[in-house]
Write a structure and sequence with these properties.
With about 325 residues, the protein is mostly beta strands. It is about 0% helix and about 60% strand. The longest helix is centred in the N-terminal third of the chain and has 4 residues. The protein is globular, with a radius of gyration of 21 Å.
Length: about 325
């Protein structure tokens, strides 16, 4: 999965990495902007207590016969700048500016849409630790535009948000309780000229087993921190118990809902009276309970047994029939 050269830059110091690598945004913003592998040239320098990162990344978002795009390869140019400040051990503030340009895209569905996508991210994260308490707060603004050239020229303006807060309490070495809340803005009207749903580039949302990609398997619904273009609202509570070295027992309860109501645009084809927005459903994806048994065999290698259950809500009714 990786093939790169890592070298110290003469004269100024710091490390430059050229080749196929994990996008360095994963350090502070991994689950929310870009954490997967891509080719690029990146640079990082620590100047305690500050650090600086800058890079150019070229992702590949399509290949011949790839689902969702017409045949051919599409290169996505992206750049980023990160600034970090370590106040003390466990206390860190980081900022990110990132932008990506995708041009010449054509969808595979009829009617065919050809478009250029321009995305910008501005984000900040703050990590705090004091005794048995630790917390982190992340906020990201996403701007940009989607410029349609066919079938009808149109400029769609993007304005979206993501916010995440986590608080953990570890009263002893064996027990830990974590409370979290994730909000991701969604788009209410797919027919207007505004894009209000937040989108990540390529991430793995490591949470639970049913809806999100909690383990390395294809048996999940989404690997992104949102539901299609409808965003997300998710409070959760997690309990971790470590009875012995290398063994962790965990339980996670999450109440998952969308920011905007789910809908079936295609329903209008069967029932024109529904209008351009199709049939509108609810926002509750459901309540999910996940139980994990994790055993560390050796460093970097774990065995995991998981059990997940979802009590589905009315938002999922949009996907149980033809939408009419």
């Amino acid at each position: 999965r990786w093939l790169y050269t890592d070298f110290v830059v003469p004269g100024i110091g710091g490390n430059a990495i050229a080749g196929l690598q994990n996008v360095p945004l994963a350090k502070d913003f991994g689950e929310f902007i870009w954490s997967e592998t891509a080719a690029g040239l990146t640079y990082f320098k620590a100047m305690a207590p500050f650090d600086l990162g800058v890079g150019w990344i070229r992702g590949n978002s399509g290949a011949a016969n790839n689902v969702g795009f017409s045949g051919g390869n599409f290169n996505d140019d992206a750049g980023y700048l990160t600034l970090g400040y370590d106040l003390s051990k466990g206390n860190r503030v980081a900022f990110v500016l990132a932008a990506m340009r995708q041009s010449g895209k054509t969808t595979s569905s009829v009617p065919l849409y050809t478009f250029a996508n321009h995305v910008q991210y501005v984000g900040v994260t703050d990590k705090f630790a004091a005794g048995a308490l630790s917390a982190d707060v992340t906020a990201i603004y996403q701007g940009g535009s989607v410029d349609l050239s066919t079938p009808t020229p149109q400029d769609l303006k993007r304005r979206a948000y993501l916010a995440n807060a986590t608080v953990s309490w570890k009263p002893s070495a064996n027990h830990k309780i974590t409370l979290a809340y994730l909000f991701v803005s969604g788009d209410e009207n797919a027919a207007d000229d505004k894009i209000n749903n937040y989108t990540a580039v390529d991430v793995d949302m490591n949470h639970g087993l049913v809806i999100f990609e909690g383990v390395v398997t294809e048996a999940y619904t989404t690997d992104s921190p949102y539901w299609l273009d409808k965003g997300l609202k998710m409070p959760s509570i997690r309990y971790d118990y470590q009875p012995s070295k290398g063994l962790v027992l965990s339980g996670v309860y999450s109440y998952i809902s969308t920011d905007k109501n789910t809908q079936r645009i295609g329903a209008a084809a069967k029932n024109p009276a529904l209008g351009a927005n199709g049939k509108v459903y609810g926002t509750e994806i459901g309540s999910e309970l996940d139980l994990f048994v994790i055993y560390n065999i050796w460093k970097g290698f774990d065995a995991l047994l998981g059990l997940g259950y979802l009590r589905a809500g009315d938002a999922l009714d949009a996907y149980t029939n033809d939408g009419a």
